[in-house]
Write a structure and sequence with these properties.
This protein is mostly beta strands. 13% of the residues lie in helices and 37% in strands.
Length: 220
């Protein structure tokens, strides 16, 4: 588990395709690896990866074919910068929100504009994630815990303060940049809980307006 508070910006040092999946070496920059051991988890642009090697200036991690399919990792190139966060401990200050490191989908930056000293971004999420994104709710973008300032269909807006721009890779975002998205964990579990017995049916399509109306949560 993570908090979505980025600890350092690292760099992709090496990529080794291995039989359909990938092994990646990350230079960890200012991230303190003194307490990191083999088998520990580190979030890389919001993707939870397991440390399989500690070469001294960073770490090696393996990336499964599933992760390559549903995240932006498959587009990484040598030299790309990535947001890094070590897994939280019982003593960690929870400054963001609860983040699992399991990416739900890939979004895209629609536009970016200055707003006083901050930067305002509009992003588009995959349609199937739109129902989990709420005004003033939390969302994780490339591993960064952020507050949603506005929602319009599958698009949402973020206001990013100078400190966040400086300490993450968001400073390099522009229209067309693709980003890893993880929606709020509680929203996902709440949807599943509201399905009740319907959740056990393999044909269930998830939460719909028809389902909500039938169960008294929505009036047509």
């Amino acid at each position: 588990m993570f908090t979505g508070i980025i600890e350092a910006v690292g760099e992709i040092a090496e990529l080794k395709p291995q039989g359909g999946d990938l092994r990646v070496r990350v230079r960890s920059g200012k991230l303190d690896l003194a307490d990191v051991q083999l088998g520990d988890s580190i979030a890389n642009n919001g993707v939870c990866l397991t440390v399989v090697g500690l070469p001294g200036d960073g770490y090696w991690a393996d990336v499964s074919a599933e992760t390559l399919d549903v995240t932006s990792v498959g587009r990484w190139k040598k030299g790309d910068r990535v947001n890094l966060e070590k897994a939280l401990t019982p003593q960690t200050r929870l400054g963001g929100h609860i983040v699992s490191g399991h990416v739900d989908g890939i979004g895209e930056v629609v536009w970016r504009k200055s707003e006083a000293r901050a930067e305002r971004f509009r992003l588009r999420a995959p349609d199937n994630l739109a129902r989990y994104i709420a005004h003033k709710g939390s969302i994780t973008v490339d591993g960064t815990s952020l507050t949603v300032n506005a929602v319009d269909g599958a698009e949402f807006e973020l206001t990013i303060v100078p400190h966040t721009l400086q300490e993450t890779i968001m400073q390099a975002y522009s229209a067309g940049t693709r980003v890893n998205l993880e929606v709020d964990l509680i929203a996902r579990y709440l949807e599943r809980l509201l399905l009740g017995e319907e959740a056990a049916q393999s044909s269930s399509q998830g939460m719909t307006l028809e389902f909500l109306a039938q169960n008294g949560f929505y009036k047509r």
